[in-house]
Recover the amino acids of this structure.
């Protein structure tokens, strides 16, 4: 929306940006692309970057239209992937909403029978980029689908699997960050689809998402997240409609199974509203999950820029996704130093997003006075699985993860998993516990903490600057503790002992 002097999009200040996504009218892939282009510091440069990335994809058959449209009188940005007739998708069509059968007029139905898979019952009535087609189908049969086509024209409608999609990302000249984000989003979708259809992830054939426009949406968002430098995302709620929607599977309840799957697996909060129809699409939900969002806004923040992304569907609630780049000022969600956290699934999420979670309790200057403790006992997990679960929990925002040896029921040696997290993170952390451990239940309690006031000082030593945490004790005295990571790095660099550097920092 605004331009920086150097013409770069986004992150001209060179630091990670905080995104607040206001999903009061839901979220879909195209809405998110538009909102992020609009919110970038230099929207024109952001649009150019998206166009360049998508033009370089090894995928054919589409062009892009980006322009402003009014939504309830508010000027929004519209991002439209216009498909060639031969590459049309079926499901971004108004005619598919609300289960209206008239979409079949002049079109055709066809069943995709797949052993062990789902049957896709398509109903054609396509409208893309203002064109309305009733073409027949000449499907890409690369994945062994048995199709029963009633159409008679030419229509390429690829059903790609995760490996196909990952190969497209691999072949595209994306930055490592953008490629990692795209892989993460597709991995999240694949897991939800697999769950919905009862298939292993590798056997899932993306239907709608295999289509060109969905690939374009996801890659475009990946490019923009990387370009803008979004390190932290806050998405308090995904507002969803009600009723049913018609998609390739037929008439589905809203939220559709894949959206439910993504939201369940990643603890994304959904809230129903009065709108009849689908506001949150699986792709939209997966993109939000890939941002690994927090759910609580800072107590105070300033707005650096705003982007409004237009949805295609017309509902009584204007279809607008609002993306704000904000600067948190203080409060529980104020920025803090942090490590990395990934999202869901090692194989699909190669490089984690920089964490937006708070620092471990020990390195904070404004520690929380309440924490949530989650516990469960496990006697059937391997050490590898336990270590992996602990890693995933830390990446998901857990402040502490402990495996405590216990003797459990029936005299069995076992381990108690103890996880400390912020209360508002508990639902998301529990989702990771259920996914990565064999537990059937989790005990949960909110605990008060007594914390010493503390501050961080940087001390300049012969070995370089070292952060020192100073805690104030109840008797008024102070206790200084050099930050381990700083000391360890300085000790390694100088080839001296850790104790020498720590002594220098305290001296
Ligand atoms: O995997 C995808 S994309 C998908 C799964 C399901 C299931 O519930 S299973 C449903 N749909 C519907 O397709 C259209 C388009 O979705 P996009 O995420 O590609 O925008 C939409 O109506 C979905 O509900 C898609
Ligand atoms: Ni599906």
């Amino acid at each position: 929306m605004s331009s920086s002097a150097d013409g770069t999009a986004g992150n001209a200040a060179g630091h990670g940006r905080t995104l607040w996504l206001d999903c009061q009218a839901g979220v879909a892939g195209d809405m998110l692309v538009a909102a992020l282009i609009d919110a970038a510091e230099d929207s024109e440069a952001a649009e150019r970057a998206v166009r360049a990335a998508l033009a370089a994809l090894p995928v054919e058959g589409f062009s892009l239209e980006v322009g402003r449209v009014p939504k309830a009188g508010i000027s929004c940005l519209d991002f439209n992937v216009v498909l060639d007739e031969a590459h049309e998708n079926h499901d971004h069509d108004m005619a598919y909403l609300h289960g209206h059968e008239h979409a079949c007029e002049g079109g055709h139905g066809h069943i995709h029978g797949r052993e062990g898979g789902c049957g896709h019952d398509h109903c054609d009535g396509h409208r893309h980029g203002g064109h309305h087609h009733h073409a027949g189908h000449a499907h890409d049969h690369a994945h062994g689908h048995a199709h029963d086509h009633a159409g008679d024209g030419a229509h390429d409608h690829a059903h790609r699997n995760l490996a196909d999609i990952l190969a497209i990302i691999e072949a595209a000249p994306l930055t490592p960050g953008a490629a990692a984000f795209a892989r993460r989003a597709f991995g999240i979708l694949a897991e939800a689809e697999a769950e919905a259809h009862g298939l292993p992830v590798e056997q899932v054939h993306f239907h709608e998402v295999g289509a060109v426009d969905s690939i374009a949406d996801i890659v475009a968002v990946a490019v923009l997240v990387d370009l803008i430098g979004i390190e932290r995302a806050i998405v308090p709620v995904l507002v969803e409609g009600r009723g049913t929607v018609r998609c390739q599977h037929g008439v589905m309840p809203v939220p559709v199974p894949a959206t439910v799957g993504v939201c369940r697996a990643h603890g994304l909060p959904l809230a129903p509203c009065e709108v009849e129809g689908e506001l949150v699409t699986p792709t939209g939900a997966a993109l939000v999950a890939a941002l690994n969002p927090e759910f609580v806004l800072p107590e105070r923040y300033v707005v650096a820029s705003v982007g409004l992304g237009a949805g295609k569907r017309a509902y009584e609630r204007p279809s607008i996704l609002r993306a704000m780049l904000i600067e948190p000022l203080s409060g529980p969600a104020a920025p803090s130093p942090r490590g990395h956290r990934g999202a869901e699934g090692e194989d699909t999420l190669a490089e984690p997003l920089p964490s937006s979670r708070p620092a471990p309790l020990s390195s904070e200057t404004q520690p929380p006075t309440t924490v949530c403790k989650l516990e469960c006992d496990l006697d059937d997990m391997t050490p590898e699985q336990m270590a992996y679960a602990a890693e995933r929990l830390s990446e998901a925002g857990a402040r502490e993860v402990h495996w405590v040896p216990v003797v459990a029921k029936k005299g069995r040696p076992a381990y108690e998993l103890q996880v400390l997290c912020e209360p508002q993170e508990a639902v998301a952390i529990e989702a990771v516990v259920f996914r990565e451990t064999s537990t059937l239940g989790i005990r949960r309690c909110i605990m008060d903490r007594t914390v010493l006031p503390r501050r961080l000082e940087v001390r300049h030593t012969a070995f370089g600057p070292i952060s020192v945490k100073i805690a104030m004790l109840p008797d008024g005295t102070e206790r200084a503790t050099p930050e381990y990571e700083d000391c360890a790095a300085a000790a390694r660099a100088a080839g001296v002992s850790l104790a020498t550097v720590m002594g220098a920092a305290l001296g």
